[in-house]
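just leaving the lab so this will be short. what follows is a protein written twice so to speak, once as letters and once as structure tokens for the fold. can you read through it and tell me how you think this chain folds. anything you notice is useful, everything is just below:
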Amino acid sequence: MHPVIAITSGEPAGVGPELCTALSQRHWPARLVVIGDKDLIAQRMASANRHVALRPFQRENIPVPGTLEVLHIPLEVPAQPGVLNPANARYVLKTLDRAIDGCVSGRFSAMVTAPVQKSVINDAGVPFSGHTEYLAERTHTPQVVMMLAGEYGEQTASRWMRVALATTHLPLQGVSAAITAEGLERSLRILHVDLQKKFGFANPRILVAGLNPHAGEGGHMGREEIEIITPVLERLRAEGMNLIGPLPADTLFTPRQLGRGDAVMAMYHDQGLPVLKFATFGGGINVTLGLPIIRTSVDHGTALDLAGTGSADPGSLFAAVDCALSMIQAQQLTV
């Protein structure tokens, strides 16, 4: 039987709904179920000049090539491409809730998320800092790890870059205080376990960035490496984890260094992600580690200026579905 993967269609004013319609262009070894307003999906399909039959999702459906299954969640108000409306914030959260509940219950094998607009959800009076934090709260997971990944290099010699984050959406001035021994240890354990269970690495090699320039320069540019990061790495190495670092971030992302590891643990958002997005943009993905479910996502935003034009590139969404499929397979092999 094919796994069933839920695809949330994201912010209705953005490119998410039309990117979802592109999924019908390829044959997948899975049933893909788009969660969103069926009329919105149909409108964006027409604007992208795609001709696909929409089918209401039912558990007993048999996959039919060239069709798209939709689990209908009605919009709160009509959506206009490129025009944000806080009235539809609850709609966006309902699509996420339906996907999360379906994954937790086993109805869905994984969920893939199209981009949402955090600002408009907050404008609606709903505190929302991102998919990662929302998924952790809804699944009662005390700590999760955000990891972005993608292929880089020449097509004939490409390899995967995986960058996990010890901290996520924080102002830069708050990062140092957020790097604690307990938090870093939990993040490294989550990364290590999910690289084994969901990515199939028997003994994953993790490159760990320092926080400060030159990884602290022996304490002359900061003491977090000496007082926090190195003691955590030594303790986990004693348990058998394969950890390399702390390494200066300005040279960590060279091909030679990246070739020594299977993933990178960066200390903060803009330490690791600008490099990854430069190398993989258009085909990169976002993965939430530590959850009891599988969740992947595109690595880009809502692209309001492209919404409704049919010109948005679905490459990142395709890569997110591919990654979800490989994670499902790897998890089945490790059970």
Remarks:
- DSSP finds twelve helices and twelve strands in the chain.
- The longest helix spans residues 315-334.
- The domain at 1-141+291-335 is CATH 3.40.718.10 (Isopropylmalate Dehydrogenase).
- The chain has a mean pLDDT of 93.
